[in-house]
Structure formats: structure tokens, C-alpha cells
Amino acid sequence: MTALTADQIARVKATAPVFAEHGTTITKHFYQRMFNAHPELKNIFNQTHQKSGSQPETLARAVYAYAANIDNLGALGGAVTHIAHKHASLNIRPEHYPIVGRHLLGAVVDVLGEAVDQPTLDAWAVAYEQLANIMIGAEAKLYEAASWSGFRPFKVMRKQVESDEITSFYLAPADGASAGGFEPGQYVSVTRYVDQLGVDQPRQYSLSDAPHGRWLRISVKREDGRADTQPGHVSNILHADVEEGTIVHVSAPMGEFTLDRKKSTPVVLMSGGVGITPMTSMLATLLAERSERKIAFVHACRNGRVHAFKDWLRRSAAEHPNLKRVVFYEAVGADDRAGVDYDFEGRLDIGRVEADVMLPDADYYLCGPVAFMRAQREALVARGVDPACIHTEIFGSGML
Questions:
Q1: What CATH class has 6-145?
Q2: Sign of dihedral through CA atoms 232, 233, 234, 240?
Q3: Which residues are catalytic?
Q4: Handedness of CA 281, 284, 288, 294 (dihedral sign)
Q5: Neighbours of 190 (CB within 10 A)
Q6: Where does the record place a coiled coil (predicted)?
Q7: pLDDT tens per residue, range 35-45
């Protein structure tokens, strides 16, 4: 690998503001350019995120962060780990990186033209090679540790409606072998062919049960779409068309948002909406291991109709003295029972349940909409919780 010179480092760092200003224009053109030359790669990239612009924006932010920290790559450690897990879940391989690099640099030339000189392009070529090697190395370790390689056929052995929006799919290996292990909090990618797009599409779903080797369970929210968002292609296919007996193709579990099972200190699991899915895996694991750790399970959703795992959570709290359940309903329904289905009306407010969630030496796991997690994190930090004890999961591709 060619090392960056001091001059090249300075050139890359100096162009960081260019990506701050023009990055999304460059990355949108990059994806169009690459897909025109390699349409088969549409099977890897989320085409809904392409249309919405969220994927180009994510890439533009990643490129900017890399350029701005080119002389201090240690600052990117967490981002590299996060993206490596996403890539490994999507079966991104070393041979994909030269394609991406060629078209990304080509897009820079197409968009910026004479505004970027050849020495700067040469610097970026070396910088990209450096980044590609970092990612390839990180992903190689994940592939080596994975339970299987690529996408493996699983049969839907059970389909269970959990709420008006969420349905669980119990997936058993089609060959009858073990489903393998995973860490609670991890996710898998599932691929389905989407007629409207004419390509296979992968989507990542958190595992929602404890690891035991017999099956993997994913619990999928049906994304109906709103005025500002498209309906979810794959989630709707899974809900409407995938029945018991269907074969789906699944990647090995990945993800760095995982429960620390070695600790004996308290655990606080806080979720909003479909963010409950990795939390059920964490809680089910703690209960299966007969953990004596003090556990608080705090969940917020609109009402009982969309509250997945409601009965299981209530039973679990009744059967395990070390588990405290706290549920907030934003808009209580006519059939929702206070003290049975939910505990508080309104949005999750830590100030109303401090005695249950502010536990000494606890680790806090947050999952849900970004605004939800930001609010809860700020509330915890304001009450003196060490940020290092707050762990978050954001649903999304994060793909370079």
C-alpha cells in the first residue's frame, strides 16, 4: 500500500470543506455513475435510500469525516467498526472497493472539473486506497468470526403477528443444521426480490430472541409510508407475501450494539417503537441465563395496538423479581389498561421514573428514532450518567 506523503495529507485535508459544500452532489452522481457501469450492484445497495437521498448524504458525511481526520484516523475508530459490520452484513467484498474508488474519483472530476488539480486527485486516490485497506481488514476479521459466509437459505418455520405493525418471522436453516450463535443486539440482512425495482434488495433486521441455535427470529415493522417517505418495499413483501415454508436468504449476524454479558451490574433497556426488537433479545438472553442483574425495561410507543411483545413483557416482569417494566403510551387507546398494558401516558420522561432507571453503575442501551435516543441520552447525561455507559443503535445502512 502506498503511504500518503505530508503534501498529500495536506491536500486531502484541505478539500474537506469541498465535501462539506458539494459532497452530496458528488455522491449522488457517483451512485448514478457506478450503477450505470455495474447494474448488478443495485442488488447490494438500498434503492429506496438512493431515491430519498439518504444514502448519498450518508456517504458524503463519511467522506467529509475521513478527509477532515486524515491526519488522525484514530478519531474514526467507532465509525469504521460500525460501517464494517454493516458492510459484512451486506456481503461487501474486497473486489467491490476498486469499483467504488474508480467511480467516486470519477464523480469528483465530473462534478468539480478544473476546480480540482491532478496532484489533489492523486492524493485522494492514495487516501481512498488507504481507507479501502482499513475497511477490508476490519471486514475480514468479521467474516472469519461469522457463523457462515454470504447469504444462507432459511425456511420460515413460524410467522407471528406481534402488533398492528410488527410481525415476527422464525427462521430455521433450510439444511436442518444449527442456526448458529450471535450476540444479543445484533442484526441480520434478509434479501427479497422487489418487482417494482427489478432487483434483489437486502434489509437489515435486529434479532429479537435469545441465541439458542434452533432458529433466528426477526420482528419486522411494516413501513406503510407517509407523506414524506416511501412505503417499505421489503417490509411489505415480508408481511404480505412471505408465509410459513417460504425460503429467505439471510446473512450471518453482525453489529457492535451488543449486550455486555460479562458484567453483573444493572442493565437499563430503553426503546421507542420498533426499537424494542434488539431489547427483547437482550432481555430474553438475561432471563434465559437466569441473570441476577437488576434490569429495567423502559419502552415508549403510541398505544397498545402497536405495542409488540406486550404480554410477554408483562409475564416476564411478574415472574422475575429483578425485572422492572416501565411502559409509556403517547396516545392511550380505549382498550388500553393502566397498570396492565402501560404505566404512564405521554412521551417517555426519565424524570417520572428516576427511581427505576437511575441505577448505580448501570449500563444503558437505547434504540429507537434518532430524536428519541438523543433526548434520552441528554436526559441521562444531565443526571450524571457517564456517556461511556450509554450505548445506542441507529437503524440505517451507514454504508460507504
A1: mainly alpha
A2: positive
A3: 97, 139
A4: positive
A5: 24
A6: none
A7: 999 999 999 99
